[in-house]
């Protein structure tokens, strides 16, 4: 296997691990490495990645660096939020949703530079390897995939550092020791897992959190904001129109400052084991509540319940890595069909970790005060209709009860 | 219709409205009224209801007063929480779950006293009339049902008060004016709707909340608690074994003190319109998180995802009033089947409106640190298995992609 | 109520019942009646309906007669068959699917002629009243609906005939006696119910069947046909391109001749009771098998299984009358999304009531002989991948089994 | 890997392939082989398997032969038929349902004889390997699994025969040449796939069918039978009480004689590719119709629709091999809960490939002739109830339509 790769596109962060992978690919496969580094809003500068790639011998024309934040939010995050997706009832899928985009970019670059393989830095026990590779294959069925963590023998931190040193890969001082946990970050969230978090009975230490201040540290006074929506997507904060990425950035700031979006979760991985993760999704947590709020007055019940029934399946598909699958796209078509009038404004109260919807309004509101009021009105609601409605809904239950009575059980 | 009722069992709170109903039944139907007053944990004394019933001419042997709190929590609330039920993603179903129990008691009393009818005080626009009546019919198919709010002409507050006065029904001073909103309460929750809440764009005023203090008013220091579970039901708080009702009472105190469990929601009623409600479910909000927490380490993924997929349907059935239906009972059988090993302890942090699971442990834990660890281990996980797993999961996607490539779209 | 209708659009067949309704509307409501008679392929001439309407005093410009067969098949039948819809596992929904179209036409005519009401001839115990009226309201929310069978006192055949005679409504000789069962027909199917069919333990007599010959009477030799599909819809039979209605007509002939499409069913009505019906859907039965056949080689598994999971819900919506609802439209969007490559040819064997798919081919086939063959091949399938696939799928089950072993149950 | 197996329990048919496997296990792993041969109703005698095993050097006490037909039908086939399970709308799962039982027996024997491994003869491209191995692991998490077809190099018929000859394995004359297709059989069905069936455009030749005569060859006169049910399971044919296996045997005869139960299908395997199979399920095809027939009068609509909604998922689990999984067991609990009153008799007409339900009766029937009749009756159905029922069901659709009108789209 090691012999027939000519050129590989590596998802490259510029960090120690992917630098080791880069060098390992060169030495093991004897192939040319092309790097792809994306700005997904992870909060790191990208130019150091370029320098490091150059240093490791990558040709300038083979170093691809791209700011994909707008594409990430508009084509991945927002469609997912139209579904109100939560994996296992709680997780906002911040890592899952970034993988398909990175994969897609790698495949595009592979076509451009004529590469015959792609590689990623995900480990052999996690979900990310699945998400990367299902995406690769769905987009380029004959691509070769290299997953170094499943292949090499650098199975301990020590070996990894030795390899780095022996190949002149610079090691930042703070990378010498082992990190106390493993991290992923993008504009939607930060996740932490492993090491100190591996005992699910122990509370996550405060230093694990990187993206939010604690509720305790948040201001003692609530912040009120208004999020505007058009056709299911957020378009403004406090009246200011913002691009998708700018909007999520703004919600992240608001969430962070108010201690919003922390989640400590034991979840079920697609590869079959349970793992414990700590997630911070400050803006996303606000966005989910806001989206549910605007839907609450603009979506019909039939549409809303159908969406709710299918949400866990949609979330599972995203989590498992089936973004580029017909079934995810079919569900998306169903969801998007429902969002045409999900337009309006939601007012939210942010306070020390809490996000509360406190007001909603829409030119397309289906809420009808005349209909619901306790006051007698001129509207099309006849109390006697309720009697018939109940009677026919009860008919089958009465038939059942008559059987029970008849047979005496 | 008004002529053929001999004896009716009324769900009687002792308040003004059901007292008016009581008298209206006597005068309109000329029938004997039997009252049923339940202690569901609504926080009111019941003896005044007895006195008032006597005053209104009900025979002592026809006044039924019962403390049903334990039955309510163990037979209704807990089974529902095994499902992690949330209506429309957010509502903990506090009103919905109490109706079937009241209905069941009324039917039992009707059989005991030989009544041919039952009556309730729910209005003609709400969900509760449906919940009461579906339950009545499911349990006693030929029972006659009287829903005064759908029949009478006391269609304004003024008319109601006039009727009360003309029939010597005592009116508490604070009932003279109209209440600023309508309320329901039991051990699980309090709900408020109508009047000042009818504009969904306006924030609910603080005085609406009756069951919880605000997050702002809650202590500045977090409270940590441990909830113990056995087979899916909570059995202890901080190591102290408690009966179901006592446990929920304790969680309510903890929730109340920490500003937990408020919800401001626009929801879709079964009768077809949207309404806005404010809910307070302090203990239930803690219980849901705790139950999800203990499930996270004790439930298999297949079981958990099946439960998540069916939860919205279960919640819809409860909300719509189909508690006593074959389909709810079938879903319950499925859910209960999953709870055998949902046993253990969950540690939670309560802080100013937030409930966070911070630790979980169980003798039946499926979490396997050896399996998930980044460290190399002796456990049954071969990284190469992941490659095959991904390859076969990708096979159909690659076949699809090959088709796309073949036809050039 | 009877006084405020000015002009009503009646779904008029020209038969005795709707003629009585026509006259009853004129006399009871004192309103102008506009008739709409549709050719849905029921196999009756329409001109007699025009003459009868004129005879009953309808103005020529208020008599609407339209051949809607093409619209019926292309806009209603075909979209439904894309879903492979079967109600309660067996029923092809032949009556259900025609009602929304008739309703839509009535509403369009009501707008054209300025009518304030619509009326239909469905009884008060059936599903059709629901289907008509939900469609009316969904399309024209303030329309008034008259359902004579729920209002009048013509509650026996005798009274109906008396009314007809007293109003000079011609009664065909064979309508004098009571029909032995009740019938509905259109291009998709014929249904029979009531009377001799009301005992579900008794076999339906042969004379109930009107649309098909019996399997016994069908030819002793099989007929082979080929149905061509494009994007999920049938477009040709035996290589001959046909319009939707012409194609269904052709399949009906083929089905009829071969004794195909009979169904004797006890089903659950939306209004709450069980009923027994006999259905004949000759062409539709062939079409369903053919569509499943072409999907079997062109649809991906993920798409196919998602469709299968949602089919019962789609069928229920159609049966209940929610064609014009957001949730049906959302499901349709999901289904249609899957049909882009459902193109190709299916060969079927028709023989004495049997329809068997015996061959399928498509330029977009996903069937890959190289992949599936037992022979060793050069294709991208490594047997060792299966080992990893199984291992990771088994991981959670092994974890469970280890728990069972550990706790000794 | 080849070195650490001491004793392996092989699912042994006595045929050429598993005899080769037996010998291969002995020679490759140097381990002791224990054989398990089950009578699942495949229609072959078992004693020759014993002789052959002895001949191949298996100790008599290590040869396990068991008639598991009753267990197969009562514990696997019948529970599955309670679900009306059809994979991909058509396949009765005849192969899938047998694998868990064989696996369970192998594990039980492994415990008895102290074996550390199990082995099966399924190939590396099929579903059966998954079904066997998921079952093994679910029952005995640390068992070692040997799948010779994925490991050895006997990758052609020629090599297999050479191996057999060189190891003195007797080869039946008709096994010399390659079989024109691959076969599996048990009391529920026979399946054929591969070779002449690999082109899905070609009709399956008549000689593929082994278990049924063709509809053409079946009698020209219909056969009527009555199947009795108790709590969801068939218990009698034509009034004669039969054990589960005897009953299925009887239905198989009836089906076979009447040309019933053939299916030609392209299906989606769990391992990711499409395959074409020909199935014969004569008795099962009758049983499914009969079960649906008895359910049609004894199951409430809510129960029936919930079952229908979940059926595809249940069928998928069985097909994929997850019989011993919590989610299949949870679904089973739900299904079984519904079957308490699925008792009564169904009359069926069998004729040249057709199975028609022509009558159903039950002491627990929910069919109510008084309720459904067109005749006016004294029953609890008020036509005016239908008006209210429709009005409230329409309310949300009217609200939607009013929005549409308001915004002028």
TrEMBL record, chains A, B, C, D:
HAMAP family: Arg_succ_synth_type1. Residues 7-170 form the Arginosuccinate synthase-like N-terminal domain. This is Argininosuccinate synthase. It is an enzyme of class 6 (ligase). It holds the Pfam family Arginosuc_syn_C. The gene is argG. Coiled coil: none annotated. Keywords: Amino-acid biosynthesis, Arginine biosynthesis, ATP-binding, Cytoplasm, Ligase, Nucleotide-binding. InterPro entries: Arginosuc_syn_C, Arginosuc_syn_N, Arginosuc_synth, Arginosuc_synth_CS, Arginosuc_synth_type_1_subfam, AS_cat/multimer_dom_body, Rossmann-like_a/b/a_fold. ATP binds at residues 11-19, 38, 121. Residues 181-398 form the Arginosuccinate synthase C-terminal domain. It catalyses: L-citrulline + L-aspartate + ATP = 2-(N(omega)-L-arginino)succinate + AMP + diphosphate + H(+). Homotetramer. One of its GO terms (biological process) is argininosuccinate metabolic process. It comes from the Bacteria. L-aspartate binds at residues 123, 127-128. Pathway: Amino-acid biosynthesis; L-arginine biosynthesis; L-arginine from L-ornithine and carbamoyl phosphate: step 2/3. It comes from Starkeya nomas. PROSITE patterns: ARGININOSUCCIN_SYN_1 (PS00564), ARGININOSUCCIN_SYN_2 (PS00565). The keyword Transit peptide does not apply. Its EC number is 6.3.4.5.
């Amino acid at each position: 296997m090691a012999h027939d790769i000519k050129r590989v596109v590596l998802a490259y962060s510029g960090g120690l691990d992917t630098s080791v992978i880069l060098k390992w690919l060169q030495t093991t496969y004897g192939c040319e490495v092309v790097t792809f580094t994306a700005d997904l809003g992870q909060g790191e500068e990208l130019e150091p990645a370029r320098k490091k790639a150059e240093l490791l011998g990558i040709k300038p024309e083979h170093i691809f660096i791209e700011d994909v934040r707008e594409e990430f939010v508009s084509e991945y995050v927002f469609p997912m939020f139209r579904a109100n997706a939560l994996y296992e009832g709680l997780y906002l899928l911040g890592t899952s949703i970034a993988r398909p985009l990175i994969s897609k970019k790698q495949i595009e670059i592979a076509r451009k530079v004529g590469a015959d393989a792609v590689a990623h830095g995900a480990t052999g026990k996690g979900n990310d390897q699945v998400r990367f590779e299902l995406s690769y294959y769905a987009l380029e069925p004959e691509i070769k995939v290299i997953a170094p963590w499943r292949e090499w023998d650098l199975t301990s931190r020590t070996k990894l550092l030795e390899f780095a040193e022996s190949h002149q890969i610079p090691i930042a001082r703070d990378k010498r020791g082992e990190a106390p946990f493993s991290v992923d970050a993008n504009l939607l969230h930060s996740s932490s897992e492993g090491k100190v978090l591996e005992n699910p009975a122990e509370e996550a230490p405060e230093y694990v959190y990187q993206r939010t201040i604690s509720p305790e540290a948040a201001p003692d006074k609530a912040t009120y904001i208004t999020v505007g929506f058009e056709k299911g997507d957020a378009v403004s904060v406090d009246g200011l129109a913002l691009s998708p990425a700018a909007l999520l950035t703004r919600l992240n700031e608001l969430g962070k400052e108010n201690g919003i979006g922390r989640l400590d979760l034991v979840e079920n991985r697609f590869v079959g084991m349970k793992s414990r993760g700590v997630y911070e999704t400050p803006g996303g947590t606000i966005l989910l509540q806001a989206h549910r709020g605007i839907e609450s007055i603009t979506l019909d019940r039939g549409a809303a319940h159908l969406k709710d029934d299918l949400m866990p399946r949609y979330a599972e598909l995203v989590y498992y890595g089936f973004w580029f699958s017909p079934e995810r796209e079919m569900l998306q078509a169903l969801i998007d069909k429902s969002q045409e009038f999900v337009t309006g404004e939601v007012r939210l109260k942010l306070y020390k970790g809490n996000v509360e919807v406190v007001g909603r309004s829409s030119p397309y509101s289906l809420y009808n005060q005349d209909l619901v009021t306790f006051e007698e009105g001129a509207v099309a609601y006849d109390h006697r209709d309720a009697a018939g409605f109940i009677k026919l809904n009860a008919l089958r239950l009465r038939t059942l009860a008559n059987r029970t009575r008849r047979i005496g059980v």
